């Protein structure tokens, strides 16, 4: 079976779509045939981050409604081979998503030989988020170092344990915590929750910490996932995260305040 | 605002009941003293009702005045006596006792004090004796409801979670959500946790918000129980 990974958080604006784009790109760069699906029907964003917004003809809802075939709707990524984007519909709402329809698309992706399916969840805990996590084998829970984001992630972890297909079969979804927009300087100043505090509250294995970085915004605006920016700290942190997801042991970086010194050592 | 300066209402109040199995004053004194010494804080100045249902006719041998003095001397406040034979009623009233109507034989949530020497120790029948164990963290928005007995949570509970148990609740991690023990009215239910950070604790409908609670208890292992009408919270170690 294709391995289905949901990128979720509960709260909006924490970096789910940025993470989905970087993660899917990172998997494809390592040779895995990967599809990334935008579940945010009505608020389509992933196509912008992936830089394929001008090539959307058919979308996810068209496929669910049998108005187009899956291969018609999948957009081949222009940066990386093996990567395909399934955009959301901008003119519909999340009621268009049904467990049967989503399940059929997952089965077809498997038949097409995809190794990974990355599901970019919308914010919230309603239908869109529910459908995005429903068939997941793994969940990347994206959290910012602040209390409301941590609480929302906690809520999502509860839903992963009760509302997914795996949970209903008495199995469990593998959970991974990804902390994004982490600023060691602000943690040191007491303005942000520290990594240890987040781990203490959520008690989920940490798979990566992405530092707060200008390069993320630049990458979004230019439509190239930040993981392609090999110079930026965020790009490198996303690359580490993908390697950890694939089973490598990679030490965590960018957790200390003197990250500038680290760059000077590398590139200075 | 009501214009009444005082009000007399019939209300149920939880009281300690001393059940006598012997009319021997020395046996009573020793038994009560032993109980008191085992939990001095719990029983200091606590009101006490004496129940004589097991004495039968030997009730007549009981000196009501001496009994009152013995109980007072041990730090309890004797407030009433019940289930005495009709012949003793006059003497009891003379000695300053309030003679109470016979209560139900074994109401569930009464703390029972029995003389140690005579009669085998009788335990109140536990109403709720099954236990449910939860081995995953309780996440925000999740609820565990177990009216049949006690709940044991092996991991932490998150802010925004809810635990409801008919009996006691044990949390072997941080307790951050709401926890309600004794939801069926069992006032003997207790809450135990490794790290008290709860939003709300409640036993048999008596609740407290953690905001109200002494801050130095936050984050430490603690026990919550009901003492009369008052919810008590104390560190465990």
UniProtKB/TrEMBL annotation, chain A:
Keyword Nucleotide-binding: yes
Signal sequence extent: none
InterPro entries xref list: CobQ/CobB/MinD/ParA_Nub-bd_dom, MinD, MinD_FleN, P-loop_NTPase, ParA/MinD_ATPase
Coiled-coil region(s): none
Keyword terms, alphabetized: ATP-binding, Cell cycle, Cell division, Nucleotide-binding, Septation
Segments forming domain CobQ/CobB/MinD/ParA nucleotide binding: 5-226
Record text on subunit structure and interactions: Interacts with MinC and FtsZ.
Role this protein plays: ATPase required for the correct placement of the division site. Cell division inhibitors MinC and MinD act in concert to form an inhibitor capable of blocking formation of the polar Z ring septums. Rapidly oscillates between the poles of the cell to destabilize FtsZ filaments that have formed before they mature into polar Z rings.
Family: Belongs to the ParA family. MinD subfamily.
PANTHER family registered for this protein in UniProt: SEPTUM SITE-DETERMINING PROTEIN MIND HOMOLOG, CHLOROPLASTIC (PTHR43384:SF6), SEPTUM SITE-DETERMINING PROTEIN MIND HOMOLOG, CHLOROPLASTIC-RELATED (PTHR43384)
Record protein name field: Septum site-determining protein MinD
Organism: Thiothrix lacustris
Gene behind the chain: minD
